[in-house]
Amino acid sequence: MDSWKKAVVMSSIGAAAFLFMRKKYPAGVLATGVGLAVLASEYPDKFERVRRSLPEYFERGMQVMEMAGKAGRRITEAAGRGAFDIWEEIGG
Question: N or C, where is the chain less crowded by C-beta within 10 Å?
């Protein structure tokens, strides 16, 4: 990778981090996109592999979020009941 491309990628990552910290989310996304575009132009085959595997990542992420939601509901239900009810449920 040429040194100017490395500089563009690193600058865009730094700018994006700064913009996200300053809560300027649209500008941060734009800066990130610039860096990703330069990387994609340098390594198109690797980005094609990532693009093809994105649905799997989203599916796994949705499964994790679903499990977290179920756990949250159970915790909320348990918190609403008294300690005696919980003790009775587990056989005490």
Answer: C
